[in-house]
Amino acid sequence: MNLAYFVAPLAVSGISAALAALISITDRIVNNYGEVTIDVNSGSKKLEVNGGANLLVTLAESGIFVPSACGGRGSCGECKVKVNSDVGPHLPTEIPYLDKDQIQNNVRLSCQVKLKTDIGIEIPEYLFKIKQYTGTVERIRDVTHDIKEVYFKLDDGQTVDFRAGQYGQIEVPPYDKVKDRTQRAYSMSSVPSDTNHVEFLVRLVPGGIVTTYVHDRLKEGEKMKVIAPFGEFYVRETDATMICVAGGSGMAPFKSIFYDFIEKDKMKDRDIWYFFGARTKKDLFYLDELEKMQNEHERFHFVAALSEPQPEDEWEGETGLITEVLGRYLKEEISQEKPKEGYLCGSPGMLDACMAVMREHGMTEDKIYFDKFA
Amino acid sequence: MKMSPEYSKAQANMQPGVITADGFLGDDKRPIVDIIADDEATMETLGVSFDEAVARMRHLMEEGRKGLEEPVTVDGNWIVRVSEARGFLPSPFEDGIFRKVNAQVELMQNGTPTGESVLYSELGMHLLEKYHFMQGVGAAFRMDPERLKRVLQL
């Protein structure tokens, strides 16, 4: 028997194993940054952590959740923190998301900053309130052909403390070709007093990773991770007329806000106009609930508008794009005398269009509130 | 076909988890220059130019955006829904960043939706226009030439 038949494969395997070991050892030496300290808000918190990972992930592992709509992929520009130490120049991946002042003040995308040495950062105090929850999907309900209402029960007596209008991040596991866990942001539609549940409205986005998972795979009884609460979208305590505009799953924060108002007996305190746009009647939902709300609360006005009502819809309500209907009402129906606040939930394009209409009718940008994510 | 360093880098950037979670190649194992060459040949056989396709796609996306996330009927022939998420995606060829805007275009016949649709993004239009890259077979945003011709009525 020719020994070369055995020796050659063994030699190749041996060399491969030696190279793999060398790479592994080199990786441990080169990428071992040891323990580093993160000084948060000038001594407010000091975190001793292992270096090597990015700042966003490391903070999350220490229980500090910086908002990130893309889950740390450097494509949403949400996870900004001010860094007080030298962590090297801004990366090309960060520049598009930062303005001149932010670059000058060393604001960084935390998902793009690799922790190599001790670092000082500044973040808003409210981020300390954000927690990661585990929950079980208690109920999934189709509210339209492409929107699901997903109701989670938080595990083990956990409770969530949020303001109506804020959002949370859902994390879904890898599936099909999606190799990593993926997070996306959705407004919470549950009422804050329901502290051991959170509810989201998830509209199917063609090609969307998380929405596809929720629509095609998520089952009642499944465990999920939810990180919450995030965002600056909540009702300001004034007596100004509220002009609320949404479409699709943008309904979520308003459902939470209106039921919170009803619970706290605030519906009588100010005028509320809620404009909801859809294409056809099959895209409308919660109609009965909202009409009941309107009948029971004199100062609450619900205006649904269809942009392309079908003959079978037998629609007698408002027609046109929601921005057109909003413009008509601001001009003809809503009191010009009282101060107004705008509350918007939708895509960046929808927000821009609504803000333009509101500005046209004398509303100022500092009184228009939204979280600009989809 | 031989890959230039620029195309090799782009192919690496197209893998799942680099720019988007599921990448640009689907189940396609071919070098991107071969994907491009094959699709160019198919487009030529179909008599469709890339410029013509991109112009139609851009028109439909612009009209669809007016629906503010709701589907809209465009030119009586298509139902277009444009979805927009916060942020940008870099091109795998490292030649620009693009808003995360997707258009789903469904063909109508005699005023009724046919169920046949194409899905594309702002970045996808750029890749099509500049590189004739229609994405790998099995990719979520693959623009199959025959389907593109049928749905966009080219």
CATH superfamily of the largest domain in chain A: Nucleotide-binding domain of ferredoxin-NADP reductase (FNR) module
Helices and strands of chain B, in order, run as: HHHEEEEHH
Helix count of chain A equals: 8
Determine the structural class of chain A based on helices, strands and strand pairing: alpha/beta
- Overall 3D shape of chain B: globular
- Low-pLDDT runs of chain A: none
Low-confidence stretches of chain B: none
For the record, the CATH class of the largest domain in chain A is Alpha Beta
Q: How much helix, percentage-wise, in residues of chain B?
A: 25-40%
Largest sheet of chain B: 4 strands, antiparallel
The gyration radius over C-alpha positions of chain A equals 25 Å
Largest interface: A-B, 41 and 35 residues
Query: What proportion strand of chain B?
Result: 25-35%
As an assembly, this protein is heterodimer
Q: Structural class, judged by helices and strands of chain B? A: alpha+beta
Largest sheet of chain A: 6 strands, antiparallel
Strands of the largest sheet of chain B, in order across it? 1-2-3-4
Strand order of the largest sheet of chain A: 9-8-11-6-7-10
Distance between the termini of chain B: 29 Å
Structural write-up:
The complex is a heterodimer of chains A (374) and B (154). The radius of gyration of chain A is 25 Å and the shape is globular. Chain A has three domains: 35-127, Roll (Ubiquitin-like (UB roll)), CATH 3.10.20.30; 130-230, Elongation Factor Tu (Ef-tu), domain 3; 241-370, Nucleotide-binding domain of ferredoxin-NADP reductase (FNR) module (Rossmann fold, 3-Layer(aba) Sandwich), CATH 3.40.50.80. In chain A, strand 13, helix 6 (287-296) and strand 14 (300-306) form a beta-alpha-beta unit. Chain A has helices at residues 4-30, 55-61, 100-104, 209-216, 251-263, 287-296, 322-332, 348-360, and strands spanning 35-40, 45-50, 80-83, 107-109, 119-122, 131-142, 147-154, 167-172, 182-187, 197-203, 223-230, 241-247, 272-278, 300-306, 318-319, 340-345, 368-370. The termini of chain A are far apart. The model of chain A has no long low-confidence stretch (mean pLDDT 89). Helices cover 25% and strands 27% of the residues of chain A. By secondary structure, chain A is an alpha/beta fold. Chain B has 154 residues and is an alpha+beta fold. Chain B has one domain. Chain B contains five helices and four strands. Chain B has helices at 5-13, 32-46, 50-65, 122-131, 145-152, and strands at 72-74, 78-90, 97-109, 112-121. In chain B, strand 2 (78-90) and strand 3 form a beta hairpin. Chain B is globular. The two termini of chain B are 29 Å apart. The mean pLDDT of chain B is 91. Chain A binds chain B through residues 69-70, 73, 75-78, 93, 96-97, 176-180, 182, 205-209, 247-248, 277-279, 283, 307-308, 321-323, 346-350, 353, 372-374, and chain B through 16-17, 19-23, 26, 65-73, 81-90, 97, 100, 102, 104, 119, 121, 140-141.
